[in-house]
Protein backbone atom coordinates (compact mmCIF):
# COMPACT_ATOMS: atom_id res chain seq x y z
CA UNK A 1 0.00 0.00 0.00
CA UNK A 2 1.47 3.32 -1.09
CA UNK A 3 1.51 5.82 1.73
CA UNK A 4 2.03 9.53 2.01
CA UNK A 5 2.44 10.85 5.54
CA UNK A 6 1.92 14.38 6.78
CA UNK A 7 1.63 15.86 10.24
CA UNK A 8 -2.03 16.84 10.54
CA UNK A 9 -1.32 19.90 12.68
CA UNK A 10 -2.60 22.42 13.29
CA UNK A 11 0.66 24.19 12.59
CA UNK A 12 0.50 27.73 13.91
CA UNK A 13 2.91 30.30 12.48
CA UNK A 14 3.09 34.07 13.11
CA UNK A 15 2.41 36.37 10.20
CA UNK A 16 5.61 37.19 8.32
CA UNK A 17 7.45 34.04 9.47
CA UNK A 18 8.40 30.98 7.43
CA UNK A 19 5.96 28.07 7.47
CA UNK A 20 7.55 24.65 6.92
CA UNK A 21 5.38 21.73 5.86
CA UNK A 22 6.72 18.21 5.57
CA UNK A 23 5.76 15.00 3.80
CA UNK A 24 7.23 11.51 3.53
CA UNK A 25 6.26 8.84 1.02
CA UNK A 26 6.67 5.09 0.80
CA UNK A 27 6.84 4.35 -2.94
CA UNK A 28 10.49 4.60 -3.91
CA UNK A 29 9.53 4.60 -7.59
CA UNK A 30 7.52 7.82 -7.33
CA UNK A 31 8.72 10.46 -9.75
CA UNK A 32 6.58 13.53 -9.31
CA UNK A 33 5.49 15.44 -6.23
CA UNK A 34 2.78 18.03 -5.84
CA UNK A 35 1.55 20.43 -3.20
CA UNK A 36 -2.10 21.43 -3.15
CA UNK A 37 -3.74 24.10 -1.02
CA UNK A 38 -7.29 23.56 0.15
CA UNK A 39 -9.38 26.22 1.83
CA UNK A 40 -12.20 25.05 4.07
CA UNK A 41 -15.18 23.91 2.00
CA UNK A 42 -13.29 24.32 -1.29
CA UNK A 43 -11.54 21.92 -3.62
CA UNK A 44 -7.74 21.54 -3.72
CA UNK A 45 -5.71 23.81 -6.00
CA UNK A 46 -2.23 23.06 -7.26
CA UNK A 47 0.43 25.44 -5.96
CA UNK A 48 3.76 23.66 -6.56
CA UNK A 49 5.23 20.60 -8.21
CA UNK A 50 8.74 19.18 -8.21
CA UNK A 51 10.42 16.31 -10.05
CA UNK A 52 14.12 16.62 -9.28
CA UNK A 53 16.12 16.49 -6.10
CA UNK A 54 16.82 19.90 -4.62
CA UNK A 55 14.81 23.09 -4.35
CA UNK A 56 12.28 24.73 -6.62
CA UNK A 57 11.15 28.27 -5.93
CA UNK A 58 8.02 30.07 -7.09
CA UNK A 59 7.37 33.43 -5.46
CA UNK A 60 6.98 32.93 -1.71
CA UNK A 61 6.84 29.14 -2.09
CA UNK A 62 9.80 26.74 -2.17
CA UNK A 63 9.41 23.00 -2.66
CA UNK A 64 12.25 20.74 -1.56
CA UNK A 65 12.75 17.12 -2.59
CA UNK A 66 15.09 14.47 -1.25
CA UNK A 67 14.42 11.17 -3.03
CA UNK A 68 17.02 9.24 -1.04
CA UNK A 69 15.19 10.11 2.17
CA UNK A 70 11.76 9.97 0.46
CA UNK A 71 10.98 13.39 1.82
CA UNK A 72 9.25 16.43 0.34
CA UNK A 73 8.74 19.78 1.99
CA UNK A 74 7.05 23.09 1.27
CA UNK A 75 8.32 26.38 2.66
CA UNK A 76 6.13 29.46 2.65
CA UNK A 77 8.06 32.67 3.25
CA UNK A 78 6.53 35.87 4.61
CA UNK A 79 3.42 33.96 5.67
CA UNK A 80 0.13 35.80 5.28
CA UNK A 81 -3.25 35.16 6.94
CA UNK A 82 -4.53 34.19 3.48
CA UNK A 83 -2.11 31.24 3.57
CA UNK A 84 -4.20 29.67 6.33
CA UNK A 85 -5.49 26.46 4.75
CA UNK A 86 -4.89 22.72 4.61
CA UNK A 87 -1.89 21.72 2.50
CA UNK A 88 -1.99 18.37 0.77
CA UNK A 89 1.11 16.54 -0.39
CA UNK A 90 0.53 14.30 -3.42
CA UNK A 91 2.80 11.77 -5.07
CA UNK A 92 2.50 10.25 -8.53
CA UNK A 93 2.48 6.49 -8.40
CA UNK A 94 5.36 4.68 -10.05
CA UNK A 95 4.61 3.92 -13.66
CA UNK A 96 4.22 7.51 -14.65
CA UNK A 97 1.20 8.24 -12.56
CA UNK A 98 -1.22 6.50 -14.90
CA UNK A 99 -3.20 5.31 -11.92
CA UNK A 100 -3.27 8.68 -10.31
CA UNK A 101 -1.89 10.47 -7.31
CA UNK A 102 -1.70 9.33 -3.72
CA UNK A 103 -2.47 12.08 -1.24
CA UNK A 104 -1.44 12.67 2.32
CA UNK A 105 -4.19 13.62 4.74
CA UNK A 106 -2.99 17.19 4.84
CA UNK A 107 -1.48 19.66 7.28
CA UNK A 108 -3.73 22.36 8.66
CA UNK A 109 -1.78 25.63 8.68
CA UNK A 110 -2.87 28.66 10.69
CA UNK A 111 -1.15 32.00 10.18
CA UNK A 112 -1.61 34.18 13.23
CA UNK A 113 -1.94 37.93 12.52
CA UNK B 1 -7.27 27.39 -17.87
CA UNK B 2 -8.79 23.95 -17.62
CA UNK B 3 -12.26 23.93 -16.24
CA UNK B 4 -13.68 20.89 -14.47
CA UNK B 5 -17.35 21.26 -13.73
CA UNK B 6 -19.31 19.17 -11.28
CA UNK B 7 -23.02 19.46 -11.84
CA UNK B 8 -24.14 19.89 -8.23
CA UNK B 9 -22.49 21.66 -5.32
CA UNK B 10 -24.82 20.20 -2.69
CA UNK B 11 -27.03 17.14 -2.96
CA UNK B 12 -29.35 15.41 -0.50
CA UNK B 13 -30.57 11.92 -1.34
CA UNK B 14 -32.46 9.19 0.44
CA UNK B 15 -31.07 5.79 1.39
CA UNK B 16 -31.50 3.32 -1.44
CA UNK B 17 -31.74 5.91 -4.20
CA UNK B 18 -29.58 5.65 -7.32
CA UNK B 19 -27.41 8.76 -7.47
CA UNK B 20 -25.56 10.22 -10.44
CA UNK B 21 -22.69 12.66 -9.99
CA UNK B 22 -21.59 14.32 -13.20
CA UNK B 23 -18.20 15.74 -14.09
CA UNK B 24 -17.29 17.54 -17.31
CA UNK B 25 -13.90 18.89 -18.38
CA UNK B 26 -13.26 21.22 -21.29
CA UNK B 27 -9.61 20.51 -22.20
CA UNK B 28 -9.68 17.17 -23.96
CA UNK B 29 -7.96 15.42 -21.06
CA UNK B 30 -7.76 11.67 -21.29
CA UNK B 31 -7.37 11.02 -17.57
CA UNK B 32 -10.24 11.56 -15.17
CA UNK B 33 -10.64 10.59 -11.52
CA UNK B 34 -13.24 10.39 -8.78
CA UNK B 35 -12.26 10.80 -5.14
CA UNK B 36 -14.15 11.11 -1.93
CA UNK B 37 -12.83 13.22 0.93
CA UNK B 38 -13.73 12.58 4.56
CA UNK B 39 -12.37 14.18 7.75
CA UNK B 40 -9.47 12.18 9.11
CA UNK B 41 -9.37 9.90 6.07
CA UNK B 42 -8.19 12.32 3.42
CA UNK B 43 -8.73 11.84 -0.30
CA UNK B 44 -9.47 8.29 -1.38
CA UNK B 45 -9.59 7.17 -5.00
CA UNK B 46 -12.84 5.55 -6.07
CA UNK B 47 -12.46 5.05 -9.84
CA UNK B 48 -10.41 6.47 -12.67
CA UNK B 49 -10.45 6.41 -16.43
CA UNK B 50 -7.66 6.97 -18.94
CA UNK B 51 -9.78 6.81 -22.10
CA UNK B 52 -13.34 6.75 -23.34
CA UNK B 53 -15.19 3.65 -22.18
CA UNK B 54 -12.19 2.63 -20.07
CA UNK B 55 -12.44 2.47 -16.30
CA UNK B 56 -10.28 1.19 -13.51
CA UNK B 57 -11.05 0.58 -9.85
CA UNK B 58 -9.34 2.71 -7.30
CA UNK B 59 -8.89 1.97 -3.63
CA UNK B 60 -12.55 2.05 -2.56
CA UNK B 61 -14.81 1.11 -5.51
CA UNK B 62 -17.38 -0.86 -3.52
CA UNK B 63 -20.88 0.57 -3.87
CA UNK B 64 -19.90 2.75 -6.85
CA UNK B 65 -19.73 2.47 -10.60
CA UNK B 66 -18.69 4.88 -13.32
CA UNK B 67 -19.49 5.71 -16.90
CA UNK B 68 -17.38 7.41 -19.54
CA UNK B 69 -19.24 7.49 -22.83
CA UNK B 70 -17.59 10.70 -24.02
CA UNK B 71 -14.08 11.94 -23.40
CA UNK B 72 -15.17 15.09 -21.59
CA UNK B 73 -17.67 13.47 -19.22
CA UNK B 74 -17.03 11.09 -16.34
CA UNK B 75 -19.99 10.08 -14.20
CA UNK B 76 -19.97 8.49 -10.78
CA UNK B 77 -22.95 6.32 -9.91
CA UNK B 78 -24.02 5.27 -6.45
CA UNK B 79 -26.10 2.20 -7.20
CA UNK B 80 -28.03 2.26 -3.92
CA UNK B 81 -27.05 5.17 -1.73
CA UNK B 82 -26.23 4.48 1.90
CA UNK B 83 -25.55 6.82 4.81
CA UNK B 84 -21.86 5.85 4.84
CA UNK B 85 -21.57 7.39 1.38
CA UNK B 86 -22.24 10.83 2.81
CA UNK B 87 -19.09 12.68 1.80
CA UNK B 88 -17.47 15.34 -0.35
CA UNK B 89 -16.95 13.95 -3.86
CA UNK B 90 -14.20 15.45 -5.98
CA UNK B 91 -13.67 14.94 -9.68
CA UNK B 92 -10.28 15.63 -11.25
CA UNK B 93 -8.80 15.54 -14.71
CA UNK B 94 -5.29 15.59 -16.11
CA UNK B 95 -3.48 15.67 -19.46
CA UNK B 96 -0.60 13.68 -17.95
CA UNK B 97 -0.64 13.09 -14.21
CA UNK B 98 3.10 12.82 -13.61
CA UNK B 99 3.77 16.12 -15.41
CA UNK B 100 0.77 18.26 -14.59
CA UNK B 101 -0.97 16.77 -11.58
CA UNK B 102 -4.72 17.26 -11.39
CA UNK B 103 -7.23 20.00 -11.90
CA UNK B 104 -10.10 19.47 -9.51
CA UNK B 105 -13.74 20.35 -9.87
CA UNK B 106 -15.45 22.36 -7.16
CA UNK B 107 -16.79 19.24 -5.46
CA UNK B 108 -20.20 17.84 -4.61
CA UNK B 109 -21.17 17.55 -0.97
CA UNK B 110 -23.53 14.60 -0.86
CA UNK B 111 -25.69 13.86 2.15
CA UNK B 112 -27.58 10.56 2.28
CA UNK B 113 -30.44 10.53 4.77
Describe this structure in words.
The complex is a heterodimer of chains A (113) and B (113). Chain A has strands at residues 4-5, 11-14, 19-25, 33-38, 45-50, 54-58, 61-66, 71-76, 85-92, 101-103, 107-112. Chain A is mostly beta strands. In chain A, strands 2, 4, 5, 9, 10 and 11 form a 6-stranded mixed sheet that branches. Chain A has a 5-stranded antiparallel sheet with strand order 1-3-8-7-6, with no helix packed on it. Chain A starts with a strand and ends with a strand. With 113 residues, chain B is mostly beta strands. In chain B, 4% of the residues lie in helices and 52% in strands. Chain B has 1 helix and 12 strands; from the N terminus they run ββββββββββαββ. Chain B has one helix at residues 97-100, and strands at residues 4-6, 10-13, 19-21, 23-25, 31-38, 42-49, 56-57, 64-70, 73-78, 87-94, 103-104, 108-112. In chain B, strands 2, 5, 6, 7, 10, 11 and 12 form a 7-stranded mixed sheet that branches. The termini of chain B are far apart. The model of chain B has no long low-confidence stretch (mean pLDDT 95). At the A-B interface, strand 5 and strand 9 of A face strand 6, helix 1 and strand 11 of B.
What's the quick description here?
The complex is a heterodimer of chains A (113) and B (113). Chain A has strands spanning 4-5, 11-14, 19-25, 33-38, 45-50, 54-58, 61-66, 71-76, 85-92, 101-103, 107-112.
Give me the secondary-structure topology.
The complex is a heterodimer of chains A (about 110) and B (about 110).
Chain A: E1 4-5, E2 11-14, E3 19-25, E4 33-38, E5 45-50, E6 54-58, E7 61-66, E8 71-76, E9 85-92, E10 101-103, E11 107-112
Parallel strand pairs in A: 2-11
Antiparallel strand pairs in A: 1-3, 3-8, 4-5, 4-9, 6-7, 7-8, 9-10, 9-11
Chain B: E1 4-6, E2 10-13, E3 19-21, E4 23-25, E5 31-38, E6 42-49, E7 56-57, E8 64-70, E9 73-78, E10 87-94, H1 97-100, E11 103-104, E12 108-112
Parallel strand pairs in B: 2-12
Antiparallel strand pairs in B: 1-4, 3-9, 5-6, 5-10, 6-7, 8-9, 10-11, 10-12
Amino acid sequence: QKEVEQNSGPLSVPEGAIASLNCTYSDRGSQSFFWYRQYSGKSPELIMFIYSNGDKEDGRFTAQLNKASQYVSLLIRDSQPSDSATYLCAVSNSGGGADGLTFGKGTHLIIQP
Amino acid sequence: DVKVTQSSRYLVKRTGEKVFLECVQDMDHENMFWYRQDPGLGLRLIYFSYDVKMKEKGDIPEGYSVSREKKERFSLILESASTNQTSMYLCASSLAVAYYGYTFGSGTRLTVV
